[in-house]
Amino acid sequence: MSRIFLDTNFFIYMIQDEGPLSERTNYLLQAFMSRRDEIFTSVMTLGELLVKPTRAGNIQLVKEYRQILHGLGIRVLPFVEEATEVFAHIRATSNTKPPDAIQLATAAVPGCDLFLTNDQRLTELKVRGIQFITSFEKAPF
């Protein structure tokens, strides 16, 4: 069993449900669930997912997005004080944007084995508390 953190773009592709990246995210999610991996994301991911339906006034879609995450057993983690030092280190040693540094720091707190993203810039980073940062295509599943 591994601890896997899914970045926002994972859910965007999964929810859009079209194209090769959508197929890949659905395949990976099924693989993680069958292995009984612990799957995490952050409150920032949830907030980012809710922007478009909120802008459109689609309250039903807001509810559905929340249900998707919780219904799949994905733990939505808060940005907590323990993450601030990791956040500061990431920002001090790279050109990583604050939202990305928050995602990475949030994943580092529980000690994630794998951080999955489609942002190639993040895959080049080494973050204390995360063993591997990789793209959907290169995920070892």
List its salient traits.
141 residues; globular; 5 strands; 53% helix; alpha/beta; 5-stranded parallel sheet; Rossmann fold; 17% strand
Explain how this protein is built.
This protein has seven helices and five strands. It starts with a strand and ends in a 6-residue tail after the last strand. The protein has a five-stranded parallel β-sheet. The chain is an alpha/beta fold. It has one domain (3-135): 5'-nuclease (Rossmann fold), CATH 3.40.50.1010. Strand 4, helix 7 and strand 5 form a beta-alpha-beta unit.
Main sheet attributes: strand count, strand direction, barrel closure: 5 strands, parallel
Number of domains: 1
CATH architecture annotation name? 3-Layer(aba) Sandwich
* Rg estimate, integer Å: 15 Å
Helix-strand makeup class: alpha/beta
Oligomeric status: single chain
Distance N to C terminus: 13 Å
* The top level CATH class name: Alpha Beta
Helical amount: 40-55%
DSSP summary, beta strand count: 5
Mass-distribution shape: globular
Uncertain segments of ≥5 residues (pLDDT<50)?
Answer: none
Mean pLDDT: 94
Order of helices and strands: EHHEHHEHHEHE
- Beta-sheet strand percentage? 15-25%
What is the CATH H-level superfamily? 5'-nuclease
Please specify the SSE layout and strand pairing:
Blueprint: E1 3-6, H1 8-16, H2 20-34, E2 38-42, H3 43-55, H4 59-71, E3 75-77, H5 84-93, H6 98-108, E4 112-117, H7 120-123, E5 130-135
Parallel strand pairs: 1-2, 1-4, 2-3, 4-5
